[in-house]
């Protein structure tokens, strides 16, 4: 997948070149621009159950396949202000992607869901991850800038769960509270994810969960509106 990324890291925009006879798979609603000979096909990419599993992982039930007979461009952008990064999977490797961070990929990449088990129940970032496997390139989006790490075997790193973008399936992970109940309640600590290498981990420098909490704290409450109307 030949991609040119511009306007990052705050408002990253990717122009994906679709070669003659080629195609690219894009998250529904992510297309911002098309140039040249490009046509669109919308499907569940694997049937109803696969579309349902993918939607449980935070992606759309449907995906769009952009194809071209003579060559063209497809411009894509993430939902929130932030960065884009391109990576790949090959052979038996797979990438686990956090809810809402998969943006586009080669049609040879299989995008499904992966149940996180009971350890995902308290992550605050979704029970089901997207599992990207096969052979090809993947475009990831973030809220804020993207920072990547390559962990050696046994090397740990801990991220606040809302900052996780993606990680190799070879990376082990577990979810826990950031501290004791006292630090969680008084210090604003939340849920963190501990990763242990080998493999790659991507994080985003902002948390969409924190953004929602910030907006909620500044919106007028329903009780206040009811009192004003009475």
From TrEMBL:
One matching Pfam family: AIM24
Stated name of the protein: TIGR00266 family protein
Coiled coil regions, renumbered to chain: none
Gene3D superfamilies, per the entry: Mitochondrial biogenesis AIM24
InterPro entries, alphabetized: AIM24 (IPR002838), AIM24_sf (IPR036983), Trp_RNA-bd_attenuator-like_dom (IPR016031)
């Amino acid at each position: 997948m030949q991609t040119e990324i511009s306007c990052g890291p705050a408002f990253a925009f990717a122009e994906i070149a679709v070669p003659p006879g080629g195609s690219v798979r894009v998250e529904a609603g992510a297309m911002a621009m098309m140039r040249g000979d490009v046509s669109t096909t919308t499907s569940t990419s694997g049937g109803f159950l696969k579309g349902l599993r993918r939607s449980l992982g935070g992606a759309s039930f449907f995906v769009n396949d952009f194809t071209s007979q003579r060559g063209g461009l497809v411009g894509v952008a993430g939902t929130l202000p932030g960065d884009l990064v391109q990576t790949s999977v090959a052979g038996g490797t797979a990438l686990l992607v956090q809810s809402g961070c998969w943006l586009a990929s080669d049609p040879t990449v299989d995008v499904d869901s992966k149940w996180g088990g009971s350890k995902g129940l308290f992550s605050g970032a979704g029970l089901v991850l997207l599992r990207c496997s096969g052979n090809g390139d993947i475009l990831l989006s973030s809220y804020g800038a993207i920072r990547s790490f390559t962990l050696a075997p046994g090397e740990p790193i801990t991220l606040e769960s809302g900052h996780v973008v993606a990680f190799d399936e070879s990376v082990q992970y577990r979810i826990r509270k950031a501290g004791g109940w006292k630090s969680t309640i008084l210090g604003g600590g939340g849920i963190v994810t501990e990763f242990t290498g080998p493999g790659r981990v991507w994080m985003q420098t902002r948390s969409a969960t924190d953004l929602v909490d910030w907006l909620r704290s500044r919106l007028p409450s329903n009780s206040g509106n009811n009192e004003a109307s009475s």
